[in-house]
Amino acid sequence: MAQLLKERTEEHPIRGRVMRFPRAMYYIVSVLSLGIFHIICTFFPRVRLVFECKTSLHEKANVVEYRNHILNVHTERVKSQETSEIADDYIRNGIFRYIFVLHERRIFNWSTRVYEIPQVDRDIDGLTRKEREIFFGKNMLVSQIDPPGIVLFNTTFTVVNVYTLFGIFLWIKIGYIVYALIIFVLMMYTVITETSREIKANAAKKQASRMKNVSYLLTNGIAEPISSADIILGDVLLLIPFLEVPCDCQVLQGTLAVDEGFVTGESVPVLKKEGAEVLGGTTVLQAHAEGGEALCAEIEEFIQSGSFAIVRAVKTSFSSTKGKALKNLAEQKITLPPLYYDTIKIIGITASVAAPFLLGLLIYMDRKGLVFAVGKYYALDLLYAIVSPSIPTTIWIGMSLCSKRLERIGVICKNLSVTNISGNITRVCFDKTGTLTEEGLDVKLICINGEEFFTIDDMPPRAALGVRACHSAESVGERTLGDPLDIKLLHFSRSRVAYVASQTGRKRAIYTEDEHQGTILQVFGFDPNTRRMSTVIDTPNGFFFFTKGSPETIETLCDPSTVPDSYFQVIDKYSMEGYRIIALAGKSIENPLLDRESLETGLELLSIIVFENKLKKETTSTISALSGSGIDSVMCTGDSLLTAVSVAMQCGIVEKHVPVIYPIRTGDQDVTELTWKCINDDVVLDKDILKVRKGKDYTSYIDFVVAVEGNLFDLLIQSPDYRRLVKKRCKVFSRMNPSQKSAVVNFYKESGLVCFVGDGANDCNAIQSADVGISLCSADGTTGEFCVSSYVVYRKEITSLLSIIKEGKSTSVTTINKIEQILTITITQFIALCVLQTQLLFMSDRQNIYSDILISIPLSILMSRFKSSRQMSTKRPKQRIFIKSILLKMALHCSVHFIHLYACIHILRSIENKYIGPPYKLGHLSEVSQIGTGTFFLFNFQILYSGFCYTSGAPFRERKSKNLSFVFFYLAHITILSTFLISVTNAAKDHPQAIWLRKLLDLCPLEPNSVFVILTVFLSDAFFISFISKVIKALLT
Questions:
Q1: Smallest Cα–Cα separation from 161: which of 199, 198, 197, 191?
Q2: 148-156 and 177-209 helices cross at what angle (nearest 10)?
Q3: Which residue ranges run through the membrane (predicted)?
Q4: pTM of this structure
Q5: Is the same domain home to 788 and 839?
Q6: Is the pLDDT of residue 495 over 80?
Q7: β-strand partners of 633
Q8: How confident is the model at residue 754 (pLDDT cuts 50, 70, 90)?
Q9: For the chain, what is the domain count?
Q10: Domain that holds residue 822
Q11: SS3 state of residue 139
């Protein structure tokens, strides 16, 4: 008992448990209870926990309890010679036990009796491979994915479906056999459709998490095939071209060219040299290493040709880059829109109000002679009339149709509920590169002493040599691999890399056509701290040293006499035009073996290299459309501030005539001590009132924009005044890392719905944080699949954002309209049936089929099949239904319907429509009567007219007249109802076809003038509904 008590004292304790019986028993009991037991366990998970298992000591437990959920215990055997004393606390009788808690592996410590993440105080190289497996686990991506049978079970026994199932049994009991069968078929269609969608989604997750590739484990110089899932932290691996990197690794020997499109969104080769980190999930394009002698027949040709690299696994499983992305996917929570909860509230309130009426009606019918047991079924049927299970289905249908329309243009909706809020976005945050601009950079020009050169041929020889030789690009076959900027410079200089043998090994030589320009002797790789890279080259004219990097850094290395006075003005000019700038410097040297520090002094400034990152052709028009519809656009990028502001001006995020100010911090200045500069004007920020001025002129500069870098964003938002300034004025966030991008999204979510549009795994945090996240998918689809986004766009065009917003506006309006229409009609139907039951009358099975199955459900679907408007509206649709205008309109509409129904029944009785047919079963209500016939016609006319009134067109959707299926539906039902109405007139009473039509819907012939009464009452009802709607709209406007 003391041990059990200890296990319970932890925060969120993990308790040992033993299953009472197989898990199939839970599903059997749930099915036998028609899902009631499952619903109870869903809302109260501890009930299932107690039902399935009992408390146990850990050494006897086959499962554990964590936060009222059951987790499987995994056990594995280990041989004594495979481990040392360091693992003794985790092994008993040759077995160690572990579990996965929220994708985190925990091992059972027999000494402390808790599942823990072990803290190993020994260097990883000092552990045996089995000890590393025990402590850190294998490279498995274990995800809890339900099998198809469980998916079908969960989809079938939802709250709505269980409620519908009991309704089906109720309708069978009353005698609505055909109606019950049709509802069951419709419910199962929805279940099968949703199950199929969920199974496909699970299959995609399973495919993404599957470690299907073979890797090669290097042990004592021998490479052995190993499943990628069996890799352990610290393993030394051999990578060859075309393999997916199984986990995050560090390069020990050789160089790799990998495609990091999964992470960055840009499918360009990235060179990885010794010491560099290679991310799991990326693909090896090329590899090269010297001295390959590993024995492995499968990859012998790669080893002999040197097409391999040796790496060490440094992050595995869910700690790796791919694992973290999959963890985010698995933990993605589907949130329901506020509209859904508003609907539940209204239904609950309506049901609470209706309950006393049902009780009173039941007592009234009992006094009238109806058997109480039968009366309660009719009373429950009235409850189903007012608390309709069709409302959640209606919301789902609308969102599903919206998703299918987007799918046709290459947009996949991963969270259907988001379609109801996508139209209410107030701000869109954009990544820059690959989202607003094209992927990669192109050389625009090279500037030397103020003169611009657009080709390499006209440049001075030394500057041209520096462009050709200062890079780390490699050549493998016919492909040039390396940093994208280096490759662009090689192409600009019309040069190529070839390899030559030397006494110190293979060296890279530079050729232009067939002319040898020189051989690269040393490469000092790019250092993010010094922000430059350098090379030493041997040419026919001697040795040269070149370095290139950020203009500020290169300027400090140069002889001041070689740097023009206008150097920084030129840099700022190009930066303001949106170009990316690097500087190139160099000198001739005598000794090529000097260290880097000695070489990087007294350099001559050779050129300024200008790269352009072109805007996508659709960017400006998209930003303009967003601005025109009242949606703010913000740029959130890792690029420099000046470049980001320039691109923002080009695409319209920032208007070109508006002053742009930004803060600069020196040392540990407080937020109030920051220096503020203006990029495109000479205004200054008045720190007392946080407004800009030129001299004493404030009024001319009411409108201004703030740009801020990531490190200062954190500082500014700590001050309430500057926080308000940033929220209102900031349009450009630069030098932002992934976590800062996410912070910007959360910052703006305080005041509205935020959308983030990005194209790489480095945007995933922000995309996941946003109310609406959009991932522009990479060419191979990996970026979008691994991002926890609301939408995945399988073409890198941001115009899809406009389609998503327009469809969101349309879907939101459609959903609200349908809920209004259904609630109004269900309340009206409830009132009509209550009035009929006071006469001991009811509507027949066939009449309910016509009203619900042939009118209400198709009308609900057709209301969802309206295309969105082609134009972006400046208006935003209502997000909630629990607001004054909607509730008032529904209440008045229901009152008008009730008054006219009651008036119609009263008038029909006054003109002797008193015929009542016998009930279909003794003791039940009569379903064939003249009053019931009149009520049937008026009620169906009310359904049709309410559907027409509640179906909105412009400005969010196409006009009703353009929806041919909607028009045809109304023409068809007006024709059908008119035909049936003629069949009950006195003139057609004895006609054979009229008799057949009346029997088809259990109708009775009416007395003279009855049809006129029905039509007159309906026209009056329609007039007052229309009049009230216009009055409410006018008053609220």
A1: 191
A2: 140
A3: 24-44, 150-170, 176-192, 346-365, 377-399, 849-866, 886-908, 928-951, 963-988, 1008-1028
A4: 0.77
A5: no
A6: yes
A7: 428
A8: very high
A9: 6
A10: 339-410+804-866+875-1036
A11: coil
From 562, 580, 612, the end of a domain falls on: 612
- Whether residue 955 has a cis bond before it, omega within 30° of 0: yes
Is residue 120 domain-resident?
yes
Rounded to an integer, what distance in angstroms lies between the CA atom of residue 528 and that of residue 381?
A: 72
Q: Which of 398, 397, 395, 391 shows the shortest CA–CA distance to 351?
A: 391
Which helix (DSSP H) or strand (DSSP E) does residue 865 occupy? none
The CA-atom distances, in angstroms, between 282 and each of 268, 270, 761 are 11, 10, 12
Residue with tokens 């949130």: 335
Q: E-strand spans in 420-514?
A: 427-430, 442-448, 451-453, 474-476, 479-481, 495-502, 505-512
* 879 and 1006 both lie in a single domain: yes
Helix (H) or strand (E) holding 173, with range, is helix 159-174
- Under a CB-based contact definition with an 8 Å cutoff, are residues 134 and 96 in contact? yes
CA distances from 115 to 38, 98, 107, 196, 716 (A): 30, 7, 5, 37, 42
pLDDT at 19 > cutoff 80: yes
419, 808 in Cβ contact below 8 A? yes
Q: Encoding tokens for residue 229? A: 């899932």
> Quick check: 745 pLDDT over 90?
yes
pLDDT tens sequence across 126-152: 888 898 989 988 888 777 778 899 999
Rounded CA gap, 582 and 605, in Å? Answer: 12
What 3-state DSSP class applies to 577?
Answer: coil
Question: Could you give the C-alpha distances from 400 to 355, 404, 452, 776, 808, in angstroms and in order?
Answer: 34, 6, 56, 21, 12
Backbone angles phi, psi at 264, to 5 degrees: -90, -20
Same domain? 458 vs 470: yes
Q: Can you tell me the distance from the alpha carbon of 48 to that of 70, in angstroms, rounded to the nearest whole number? A: 9
- 604 lies in the same domain as 650: no
Read off the CATH number of the domain in which 226 is found: 2.70.150.10
Cβ neighbour number for residue 478 with a 10 Å cutoff: 6
Q: Cβ of 673: how many Cβ atoms within 10 Å? A: 11
Does 370 fall in a domain?
yes
Buried b (16+ CB within 10 A) or exposed e, 548-586: bbebebbbebbeeebbeeebeebbeebbbbbbbbbbbbb
CB-CB contact of 17 with 53 (8 Å): yes
356: in domain: yes
Which two three-digit tokens encode residue 103? 């994708």
Q: Is 509 helix (H, G, I), strand (E, B) or coil?
A: strand
Asked if residue 334 belongs to a domain, the reply is no
Same domain, 901 and 1029: yes
Among 163, 185, 209, the domain boundary falls at 209
Q: What's the CATH code of the domain at 768? A: 3.40.50.1000
* Cα 274 from Cα 220, distance rounded (Å): 20
Over the stretch 552-607, which tens digit does the pLDDT of each residue have? Answer: 889 999 999 999 989 988 988 887 777 888 999 999 999 988 888 889 999 999 99
Average pLDDT, the chain: 84
